[in-house]
């Protein structure tokens, strides 16, 4: 079977739940004008009075900044600078640690504010609460909040260089596999057995890459093979993801010399039903050993629901790519939907990368097809569980 015409577009990597949180949360800090030579004196005095404050809370922020390096908005707010020698803007601590009046009293006891000079000028500044996840974000925050110190790392998700390498590796072929997923979706939908949803499993460790399994949604197929009324949720165990994973398992059994029919359960609908499913299921192109879907990539017409997202995770897929996010039911995305489809965002589970809570993580992307946006790629209802 020849491959369909590839889609054209680009991959957009998903943000992790922690990355989204880090990008959104801000807090208020105190900033004081102080001559450069007294900065350490002021720092030690403040630190001694608030032992609960840990400098790691603001380690991503530059502590001492010249006026000319402040963002334009702060230059306007702080102008004119104090008439002090070599004045600097010293970031003290988050405002939650100490009241303004108490901080003022501490500074009044420190040089150069302990004599008859003008009292300290204390300002409030809103800053990001967490470290940036990329050099680009650090530059953006430095222009809009406060000068940022970027340490070339990402504590909240995959390192940008890892994402970039994987994106470059798969971007040229993503449109091909997503077009094949569309074919699987159409063939199963034409039989009225399921929604227009499709999945393709690819082994990119091979050269050239090979398709291991193709599956469409089968939620409206009864255990005896008849078409059921399209009401309610249908058979959730016959979602396209569940069927594709089962086909991978059955192929491994077949190559190990075990009858794959041992896995047959009418509820799961895990045997190929359409021409495109049969074509790839019949190929003996996967090892009989290895844990289920390790090192395999999965391509989907739509963002998987929470159940299928967890199935992808527990099956140990390497990468996940989908063409249309599901703003109300998807389990992969952690941020709110593009285009304002959902006020306040969807589920925001971000299940692909939560290593502190789940025992597997993988990279994930949304595919933006050229000439289309989230509103025009509308092959299924937005509240459908894929």
TrEMBL record:
InterPro entries per UniProt: CMP_dCMP_dom, Cytidine_deaminase-like
Gene Ontology biological process: nucleobase-containing compound metabolic process
Entry superkingdom: Eukaryota
Domain CMP/dCMP-type deaminase: 172-335
One Pfam family matching this protein: dCMP_cyt_deam_1
Gene3D superfamilies: Cytidine Deaminase, domain 2
Matches recorded under SUPFAM superfamilies: Cytidine deaminase-like (SSF53927)
Single GO MF annotation: catalytic activity
Record protein name field: CMP/dCMP-type deaminase domain-containing protein
Organism, as annotated: Dothidotthia symphoricarpi CBS 119687
């Amino acid at each position: 079977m020849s491959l369909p015409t590839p889609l054209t577009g680009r991959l957009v990597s998903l943000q992790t739940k922690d990355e989204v949180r880090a990008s959104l949360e801000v807090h208020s800090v105190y900033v004081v004008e102080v001559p450069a030579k007294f900065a350490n004196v002021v720092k030690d005095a403040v630190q001694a009075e608030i032992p609960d404050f840990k400098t790691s809370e603001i380690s991503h922020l530059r502590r001492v900044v010249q006026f000319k390096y402040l963002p334009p908005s702060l230059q306007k707010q702080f102008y004119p600078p104090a008439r002090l020698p070599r004045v600097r803007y010293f970031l003290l601590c988050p405002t939650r640690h100490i009241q303004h009046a108490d901080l003022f009293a501490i500074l009044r006891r420190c040089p150069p504010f302990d004599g008859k000079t003008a009292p300290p000028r204390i300002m409030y500044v809103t800053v990001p609460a967490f470290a940036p996840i990329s050099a680009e974000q650090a530059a953006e925050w430095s222009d809009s909040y406060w000068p940022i110190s970027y340490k070339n790392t990402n504590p909240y998700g995959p390192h940008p260089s890892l994402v970039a390498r994987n994106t470059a590796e798969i971007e040229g072929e993503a449109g091909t596999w997503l077009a094949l997923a569309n074919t699987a979706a159409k063939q199963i939908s034409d039989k009225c057995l399921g929604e227009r949803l499709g999945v393709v499993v690819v082994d990119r460790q091979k050269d050239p890459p090979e398709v291991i399994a193709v599956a469409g949604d089968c939620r409206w197929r009864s255990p005896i093979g008849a078409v059921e009324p399209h009401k309610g949720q249908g058979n959730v165990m016959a979602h396209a993801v569940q069927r594709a994973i089962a086909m991978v398992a059955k192929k491994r059994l077949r190559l190990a010399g075990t009858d794959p029919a041992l896995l047959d359960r009418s509820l799961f609908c895990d045997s190929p039903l359409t021409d495109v499913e049969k074509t790839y299921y019949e190929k003996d192109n996967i090892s009989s050993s290895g844990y289920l879907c390790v090192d395999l990539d999965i391509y989907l017409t739509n963002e998987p629901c929470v159940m299928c997202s967890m199935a992808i995770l527990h099956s140990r897929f390497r990468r996940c790519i989908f063409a249309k996010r599901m703003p109300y039911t998807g389990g992969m995305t952690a941020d709110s939907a593009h285009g304002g489809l959902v006020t306040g965002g969807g589920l925001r589970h971000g299940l692909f990368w939560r290593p502190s809570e789940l025992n597997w993580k993988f990279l994930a992307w949304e595919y933006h097809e050229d000439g289309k946006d989230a509103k025009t790629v509308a092959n299924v209802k937005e509240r459908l569980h894929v």
